Amino acid sequence: YSGGGEGPPANSLRLTGEKDGIIEIGAKNGILYLNGSLDWETKKVHRLQVEALNEKGERVKGPFSITINVEDINDNPPVFSQSKYYGEVRQNSRPGKVFMHVTATDRDDPTTPNAQLLYSILHHFPSPYEEILFQIDNKTGAISPSMAGNKYLDPEKQADFLLVVTVKDLAGMSGNAFTSNADVAITVLENLWKAPLPVFIMENSTEQHPLSITKVGSRNHKKPARFPFIIDQNGTIYATEPLDREEKDSYVFDAFAKDNYGEALARPLKISVTVGDMNDNPPVCKRALTIFEVQENEIVGNYIGTLHASDMDQKDTLNSRLQFRIVDQTPKIPIDNLFIVQKETGQFQLSSSSLNRRVASNYSVKVEVSDGVFATLCDVWINVIDINDQIPIFEKSDYGSLVIPEDTQVGKILLAIQANDADEPFTGSSRIIYQIEGDQNETFRIETDFRTNRGYFKINKILDYETSPVYSLTILAKNPEPLVSGIQYNSSSIAYVQIHITDVNEAPVFFKDTYIVDVFENVTVGTFVTSVKAYDPEGAQIRYMLISNSRNWLRVDSYTGDIYTTAPFDREIEKAYIVQVVATEQSKESRSSTAQLILHLKDVNDNPPSLVKNSIFFCYPLSGGEKIEIEATDPDEHRLYPKFIFSLGGGETIQNDWIVHGFGVRRAHFSPKHPNLQKMQYSIPLKISDNGNPPLQGNVNLQVNICECTEDKTCFVPLDPDTSRPTVAMAVGILVGVLLVIGKWHSEMTQPDCNLC
């Protein structure tokens, strides 16, 4: 710019126009430079003029126009028009029928993907079904019921829902996209279009027509009763103490109706109690200190890590909904708010490209985690690490071939491998993760010692020569941190190994460890029960046998594994019959394995009822009206409860003298029909029928004694006078016994001591 032609030469340059304190020019060298950041959202175009000045500062040339167009980058998250939206939807609304919208805007350039927004539903509170009840148009933000919502939405079951709706920029296609969230409160309204109750109309009506007969619309419904824990004689159930959902969230119990004798009057009612949740637990940080790493050249918006926290309150409800917020960053250099955390997910992203390890090598970030009532502070430590511009390099590219038997134990180390990385030690840029290619079933795994980056090649699953005798594997060495632009992994980060599996004679393998079969106890001998199957991995023939067949109720076909009955079953002896089935290979080793067969015997009504106690007595003389309770029993299993029918057997005399009247389900009253019965022992035939299918009848004899009674109402049985005193023979016997004892005692007392003889 020394100038030419007429006039004084140019000595310096001057920049004017829309500099905004950011754009400057080197007065001597003419280089335009920035002393701050341009912002597309603030100013999209800067119009400038440059002039050449002489030594006196007078313009000698120009001005010349310069136009700077600012290109947008994705540096603004989308923002919802409201922090919370409210909507209403009718029960049974058509799937896809829009009932509300959410909208968001993005300050970035709308002609670029930076401002292209994608909507989705992140959370659904509560979430009572596996399928989500609402759906959102990912481009327009229109919310409507889903197919499941059309089916399940019911204000009597759940009237209020809260959706957490997410919007992402970059059309949701990048992991670096910014995200915002909003709450959507939805109230489910009753369906007004309902069938009326049945209508009754008298024929030939003379009333004015048209005649109103019913109304299509809603009807009132009574809400179901809530059932707690203790029941009184009126059938009212009570809770006896405050419940804790975190300790137990539901209870199931039976309520019985019984008579005064404790007998069930009907089948039990199953009562289910669900304990409602309240927000009584604070959020808990998963770790005392969460550590992340971020490269100093990380791109704005990049994912750094996720802060994990939990809440013991009920899952998928507002009580356990956690929201994250950064409350402090230390140090605050070069600027504050270097990081952002996603409010609903706890995901950390980089919000500025101002990281510099020489300025700050780490940051302490405090995050408040709130559930709406309680708040907890979680500590996050973020290390700023060197750029990842070095790839891992294997010390050996080929680890050769290994030969191992197929019965080698899972977890055994087969090989140690080593790759090295020249990046900053003990960071994500130098840490090495080994990956195996060519092992679709994940038979092997590699565990890394991150202090040395040495990898230990281990068996992850049981080996099987018959399935996979050879593995040709490729091992890749990579870093958890991304490589810088322009650097790629190459053959130096790849190694190879081949694994040869040798065959081992294995024991037979059953297709199932346990076979469970239900069979009626009255099946005929020789009935097929089930078939157990085993195979030998080496293809040898199999023979079967039974052990623990203690009652010899079963036999097995040694060639086929088919099992048959060999004797009648009796469920009253054993309800579940358990035997072991042994499969043995027909080879030199004769290896064997065992499976279990559990036979559940289903009851049939094959036992007639009987009396619990088969003798009673009445006090003589009879006064009339006496009755005694008798009880029946039956070892069979009845579908609900056993109910017995009592009746008298025998002839006309029995029918005229006695009566039996059943009550409850197991008991009956037995009594004389008149007081003129004699004092003696009676044997009364009774018939007792059960309620089995088909019913069985038991014929029993009840021994009834009519006797004189003592004061305490027990039967008095006097001794026979002829046997109440001893006979002559008995007296002689007693006297002889006494004399023998006396004689023996006198003999011992007069016998000299042999030691003194």
UniProtKB/TrEMBL annotation:
GO annotation terms (biological process): adherens junction organization; calcium-dependent cell-cell adhesion via plasma membrane cell adhesion molecules; cell migration; cell morphogenesis; cell-cell adhesion mediated by cadherin; cell-cell junction assembly; homophilic cell adhesion via plasma membrane adhesion molecules
InterPro entries (UniProt xref): Cadherin (IPR039808), Cadherin-like_dom (IPR002126), Cadherin-like_sf (IPR015919), Cadherin_CS (IPR020894)
UniProt entry tagged with the keyword Lipoprotein: no
A cellular-component GO term for this protein: catenin complex
Gene3D superfamilies to which the protein is assigned, alphabetical: Cadherins (2.60.40.60)
All residue ranges annotated as the Cadherin domain in the record: 18-80, 81-285, 286-394, 404-510, 511-611, 630-728
Name of protein: Cadherin 17
Record keywords: Calcium, Cell adhesion, Cell membrane, Glycoprotein, Membrane, Repeat, Transmembrane, Transmembrane helix
Domain of life: Eukaryota
Primary localization class, coarse: membrane
Compartments, record wording: Cell membrane
Record SUPFAM superfamilies: Cadherin-like
Molecular function per GO: beta-catenin binding; cadherin binding; calcium ion binding
Gene name of the encoded protein: CDH17
Organism: Sphenodon punctatus
Keyword Glycoprotein: yes
